Amino acid sequence: MTFNVAINVMPLKDLLDPQGKAVLAGLHNLGLSNAEDVRIGKRIIMQIDAQTEQEAMNLAKEAAEKLLANQVMEQFEISIIG
């Protein structure tokens, strides 16, 4: 069975996010002063062939830990979509 898995990777909350700060400044320059904080991350969508949803989640976790996220600076969340 094929599972669609989303992996959201974001900088750790305690780390400075220079991209987010630049976007926040840009929003303020455009007059969108209600924006208070911006954090920039990435979303990876994978199709995983697995017997069960749990197996697909485990495979996605392994991919995130070994390749997709730098765990020193980033955290990730995994979900089954669709």
Detailed description of the structure:
With 82 residues, the chain is α+β, with helices and mostly antiparallel strands. It has a single domain (2-81), classed as 2-Layer Sandwich (Mth169, Chain: A), CATH 3.30.1280.10. Helix content is 34%, strand content 32%. The protein is elongated, with a radius of gyration of 16 Å.
CATH-defined topology: Mth169, Chain: A
Strand order of the largest sheet: 2-1-3
What's the structural domain tally? 1
- Individual helix count: 2
H/E element sequence: EHEHE
First-to-last CA distance:
13 Å
Outline the low-pLDDT stretches.
none
* CATH homology superfamily name: Phosphoribosylformylglycinamidine synthase subunit PurS
Count the strands? Answer: 3
What is the SS-derived class?
Answer: alpha+beta
How much helical structure, as a percent, in the residues?
Answer: 25-40%
Mean pLDDT over all positions: 97
Quote the beta fraction.
25-35%
Judging from the principal axes of the Cα atoms, what is the shape?
elongated
Rg estimate, integer Å: 16 Å
For the largest beta-sheet, the strand count, sense and barrel status come to:
3 strands, antiparallel
CATH architect. name: 2-Layer Sandwich
Which CATH C-level class is it?
Answer: Alpha Beta
